[in-house]
Amino acid sequence: MAVTITFIRHAETTANAEHRWQGFSDAPLSTLGESQLERLADRYRSMPPRLIVASDLDRTMATARAIGSPTADPRWREFSVGSWEGLTTDEVATQYPDDYAALVRGEDVSLGGGERMSEFRSRIAAAFEDLVDGLDEDADPVVVTHGGAIWAVLDHVVGTNGSRAPVSLAGNTSVTRIRVSDEGRRSVAVFNDTTHLDGVPTRPGFVNRSVTLVRHGETEGNVAGRWQGRSDSSLTDRGRWQVNEAASVAPEFDAIYASPLGRAMDSAAILAAKRSLDPTPVEGLVEMSFGSWENLTPEEAATEDPDRFDAIYGRGEDRPRGGDGESFSGAGERMGRTIAGLARAGEDDETPVDVAAVSHGAAIRAYATQVVGLGFAERNRLPVPRNSSMSRVTYFEGAPVLASYNVAPHLD
Q1: Sign of torsion, CA 366 372 375 380?
Q2: Which residue segments constitute the domains of the chain, with CATH numbers given?
C-alpha cells in the first residue's frame, strides 16, 4: 500500500520570534505566524486533507484547524526541555553551561531534565510507524507537528541514527512529504517547501549564503525514459511550462549558473528572463556521465551489458556507468566542489548571497545524498528530483546544510 504522509510545522509563535525554547509549553502565534497561517490555509483550500493528526499543543492545533478538523495525538509533541522552557539559547548556555555544551557536542543529554534526544527520536519513530500501520489505502494523512519532530522523522526515514546530519530545521508552516512505497520503502519525497509564503516577510537567520539547485524541465529523453548523461535532448512543451511555473515561485537570485548542456541552459534562460539576469555556464554542473549507456533505457543497458548493470543496480557497487562514464559518488564530489565554489563567490562581502544553479537529476541527487551523509546503497532515501524542482543548500561555518529538497508545488 503506497501512501504519502505530509508533515507541516506549526506557524511561528512569539517564542519562536524571540528564539525561546518551548518544548511542552506554549506561546501564542505571532503576527507573522498569523500571516503564515493564512497562506497555508490558501494552499489547502481547494483540496483540504481528509485525515489530519496533530500534536495536542495549542500552536499545532491552531495551525491544523486552519486546514481542517484535526485529531490530537500527544506523541507528536515537540521534545520536552524541562527547565529550559521559556529560556533563550543564550540563557540556556549561561545557566546550564555543561549540559548545553554536551548537547552542542552531540551527546545524548537530558534537556533541562526533560527528554533525552534518543528518547524523543524513539517516541517520534513509534508514532510514525503506528500511523503507517493504521492507514487505509490512499489515506495520505497530514501531520501537524513541530520542527524537532520533523527532524526526528527525517532521521528515522533517512537512517542517520541521531547523528548531527547537516539538515536544516523545517520552517514554520513548511510542507515535508514522506513516501512509503507498496514494498514499504521510505523516502523523503519533499523537504521544507515554504513556497506558499512568497511575499510574507521572513526573519533573518544566521545563514548568508545559499545555492538553489534547479533541475531542468522535462525533455524528449525524459519522456522516453532514456539516460541522457552528457548527451542532449530538447525541452518538451511541458518542460518549458514546468520551468516557467517554477520561476513564478522561486526566490530572487543574485546570479544564475547552469550546466552548459542545452536543456539546462534553456531552463536557466527562462528562469533568468524573469529576473533580468544572464545565466552563466559552469562545466561542473553537468549531468553524471553514463558513458556507453547514454541514450539507452535501463532495460536496454541491462540487456547489452548485464554483468556491469547487475553489479551496480543489483549488488550496489558504485562503478562508472557504462564502464567509461562516471560513478555516483564521483558525480557527487564534483558537484560538491562546484557548488562550494559558487557559494564562496564574493565571500569577502558579508552581504547575503543567493544564487541558482540549474543542473540535472542524477547530479543533484548524488550531491544531496553526500550532504546528508548517505552512500550509494542508501540513495533511494532521496528520490531523483523532479523536473523543474528546487533543492536548496545553505552554508554554515563553511559547510553545506540541506535546507530543502525536491520542492515543486506546481507539480503537486
Answers
A1: negative
A2: 3-197 (3.40.50.1240), 209-411 (3.40.50.1240)
